[in-house]
Design a protein that fits this description.
Mean pLDDT: 82
Distance between the termini: 38 Å
Structural class: mainly alpha
């Protein structure tokens, strides 16, 4: 049976709905946008035939900064998920 458009059906039996699901989805989106914005600054070097490797090596600092930033944001994202798991596992306060 489907609910009317203005009514919300309760979750199916056995489905766990967490109070942090929306926050988790939002923060995942924010981290995805941050990682995407990191790529915008990467440029394909201008090169002549046979000089691609030297062109890429010339952009090495930019690529290294991207990799370090990507790893840093990835670690922040993993730590954020670990923190949310701890929050969900904590007993409710009185």
């Amino acid at each position: 049976m489907s609910a009317a458009p203005d009514e919300v059906e309760p979750p199916a039996a056995g489905t766990r709905v967490s109070g942090t699901d929306r926050m988790t989805a939002f923060s995942d989106g924010v981290f995805a946008i941050v990682i995407t914005l990191l790529v915008i600054d990467l440029r394909v070097p201008e090169y002549h035939e046979g000089e691609l490797l030297s062109g890429l090596l010339g952009e090495g600092a930019s690529y290294l900064a991207f990799v370090v930033s990507f790893v840093y944001v990835g670690v922040l994202w993993l730590n954020h998920h670990a923190l949310l798991r701890l929050i969900l596992a904590a007993p409710p306060s009185r």
